[in-house]
Specification:
Elements (H helix, E strand, L loop, with lengths): L1 E10 L2 E12 L14 H26 L11 E12 L2 E11 L10 E2 L1 H4 L7 H13 L2 H11 L9 H20 L1 H4 L14 E12 L8 E11 L2 E9 L7 H10 L8 E6 L3 H11 L4 E4 L1 H22 L4 H10 L2 H7 L3 H14 L3 H4 L2 H23 L7 H6 L7 H15 L9 H15 L3 H8 L17
Parallel strand pairs: 6-9, 9-10
Antiparallel strand pairs: 1-2, 3-4, 4-5, 6-7, 7-8
C-alpha cells in the first residue's frame, strides 16, 4: 500500500502548482504497531519538504510583487538572484529571491532592492525564536538543545546550545529594553495592551545570590526577585541582578507594578523579611510611602526555637524560681498569641522578663545547663533585636488575615524557588555573568507569567493570532 502526500498551491480556487512531497509505503495486511502511521523521521522529512515548498512560494510571490515600480508601474531591472538560508521550526530552508535595480523615474542614485530585506526577514523564524527562548529559559541550554533537536526537524546537525543561548539572551535584551528604554521600544507606535487599574497591590520581595564568573571581582551576584498580588489575585513575577551595570532597580520595580495596574491611588503593601533596602526600593518605584508588613513567617521562625526550648529550661530551673517556671511552662505560648493579635508591647515585656530572670542561673548551674540557658537567651536576644529593628512594620495579623490580606512573604520565597534556584541555584556548578543572569531572568519571569507570547505579539502583531482566519486553519 502506497500513500502519497502532495502540496498544492491555489489562487482564487485555481490550481497554480502541484508537487509530490513524499511517498510512504506500508503493507496492506499484517501491520505491526511500529508500522502504523508515520514514524518520527518520516514526519520530519515530510514537514521539511512542505515547509521548503511553502517558503519558496512565498518568496516568489514577494519577488513578483516588488518587480514593478511603485511610482510608474514599469518593471524594474533584475540585478541578480540571491539565495539565503532561513531557519524555521520545520527545517532549514534555502530561499532564492531576485534583487532589482530601483527605477530612476523619481531621480536619485540607482539602488538595489531586495524584497526579503524589505520584509525585515531575519535568518530565524519567530516561531523558532519563541521555542529557543522558552526552552532555553526553562532548562539548561544543552538539555533544551537536545530536546528540540530530537523532536523537531530543525536541521540535520541538530541544535547548538550556543545558538539557543544567543537567541534566549537576545529576547532577554528586548525585554530589558522594554523597561529601560520605553520610548525606543515603543517606536514608532506602542503596541502594549492596556492594563486595568488596581486598587490594592501586595509586593512580596526578597533577595538571594547566584554564583558569579568573577569577571567583576565578585564571587556571587545579588538577585532581587518576588511576586505581586493584585486585588487579592496572584499576579506575575519580577527579577533582576542588582550588579548588572545597566540595571535600574527602581525602573524595573516600577515597570512590574505598572504591568499590574499601579496608579497614584493604588494602595501598595510590601511584605519583606525586614530588609529596609528592599522596602525603600518599592517606595522609590511608587514615589510614595507604602504600607510595610513584617513577614509573619520570619517572626514565627525566630519564635519557634524559644517555644521548643522552654520546657527543657523549666526542668533545669525546677523549684529554684517558681515564677520563671510558670512563665516557661504556661505563659511563653501566649507570646505568639499576643504577637498575632497586635499586642506587641505585652509580648516584648514578657520576653524581657524571662530574659532578665534567666541571667542569674548562668552562674549557679553546671556548665552544661548554663550553656543551654545561654543558647536560650541568645534566641530571645535575636528575636528582640529583630523586632526592634522592624517595629514600624508591626501589624495585627489576625485582623489582616480576616480581611483577606497577605501576611507572609511566601510569594517571594516561591519566586526564588521557581525563578532563580531551579535554574541558577547554588547547588549547580555553573557560573554566571551579570549580563547573562540578568537577561535570562527577564525571559524566565516572562515564561512563568505566560506573557512571552504576548511580548512576541507586541513585536510581531500577527504572531500566533488567537482568531485564525478560515484559510489559516488546517482542514481536517
Amino acid at each position: 500500500m502506497e500513500f502519497r502526500i502532495w502540496v498544492e498551491t491555489r489562487l482564487d480556487d485555481r490550481i497554480l502548482e502541484r508537487e509530490l512531497v513524499t511517498r510512504v509505503e506500508r503493507p496492506a495486511c499484517g501491520i505491526g504497531p511500529e508500522e502504523i502511521g508515520l514514524t518520527l523521521e518520516e514526519g520530519k522529512a515530510v514537514l521539511r519538504k512542505v515547509q521548503a515548498r511553502i517558503v519558496q512560494t512565498q518568496a516568489d510571490i514577494l519577488s513578483a510583487v516588488h518587480r514593478g515600480c511603485c511610482h510608474c508601474g514599469r518593471n524594474q531591472r533584475v540585478e541578480d538572484l540571491r539565495t539565503r538560508t532561513f531557519r524555521t521550526v520545520f527545517g532549514t530552508v534555502p530561499v532564492s529571491c531576485r534583487r532589482y535595480l530601483r527605477c530612476k523615474c523619481q531621480g536619485g542614485i540607482r539602488a538595489t532592492i531586495w524584497p526579503l530585506h524589505r520584509q525585515q526577514l531575519s535568518g530565524t523564524s519567530p516561531e523558532l525564536q519563541y521555542l529557543y527562548t522558552s526552552w532555553g529559559s526553562k532548562v539548561s541550554y544543552r538539555r533544551a538543545a537536545a530536546v528540540l533537536g530530537e523532536l523537531l526537524p530543525i536541521c540535520d546537525r541538530g541544535v547548538s546550545h550556543a545558538t539557543l543561548r544567543r537567541h534566549t539572551l537576545a529576547i532577554g535584551g528586548r525585554l530589558d529594553m522594554r523597561v529601560t528604554e520605553p520610548d525606543e521600544y515603543d517606536w514608532p507606535e506602542p503596541r502594549r495592551e492596556p492594563v486595568t487599574p488596581a486598587q490594592n497591590l501586595s509586593v512580596a520581595i526578597d533577595g538571594t545570590y547566584v554564583r558569579a564568573d568573577r569577571a567583576m571581582g565578585l564571587v556571587e551576584y545579588h538577585v532581587v526577585a518576588g511576586r505581586i498580588e493584585r486585588d487579592g489575585r496572584l499576579g506575575g513575577y519580577f527579577a533582576w541582578v542588582a550588579r548588572h551595570p545597566m540595571c535600574d532597580a527602581a525602573a524595573f520595580m516600577k515597570a512590574a507594578l505598572e504591568d499590574h495596574g499601579l496608579t497614584q491611588t493604588s494602595r501598595v503593601r510590601v511584605l519583606a523579611d525586614g530588609a529596609d533596602s528592599l522596602t525603600n526600593l518599592v517606595n522609590a518605584a511608587t514615589e510614595k510611602t507604602t504600607h510595610r508588613v513584617l513577614d509573619w513567617f520570619h517572626i514565627s521562625m525566630r519564635l519557634r526555637p524559644i517555644e521548643q526550648m522552654s520546657p527543657g529550661i523549666a526542668s533545669i530551673v525546677g523549684d529554684a524560681d517558681p515564677i520563671l517556671t510558670e512563665l516557661l511552662r504556661e505563659k511563653i505560648h501566649w507570646v505568639r498569641f499576643q504577637m498575632w493579635n497586635g499586642k506587641w508591647q505585652a509580648a516584648l515585656d514578657r520576653l524581657g522578663a524571662i530574659y532578665r530572670i534567666t541571667k542569674k542561673f548562668l552562674i549557679t548551674l553546671s556548665i552544661t545547663d548554663a550553656e543551654r540557658i545561654g543558647r536560650f537567651r541568645k534566641h530571645m536576644l535575636d528575636l528582640r533585636d529583630y523586632l526592634c529593628r522592624n517595629q514600624v512594620a508591626f501589624r495585627n495579623y489576625s485582623q489582616d488575615r480576616r480581611k483577606g490580606l497577605r501576611i507572609s512573604s511566601a510569594l517571594a520565597e516561591s519566586a526564588m524557588s521557581h525563578l532563580v534556584n531551579a535554574r541558577m541555584g547554588k547547588r549547580q556548578s555553573i557560573r554566571w555573568s551579570a549580563e547573562g543572569a540578568h537577561l535570562l531572568l527577564q525571559v524566565r519571569f516572562a515564561v512563568f507569567d505566560n506573557r512571552l507570547e504576548m511580548y512576541f505579539r507586541e513585536w510581531l502583531p500577527q504572531f500566533r493570532p488567537s482568531n485564525l482566519s478560515p484559510l489559516c486553519r488546517p482542514q481536517l
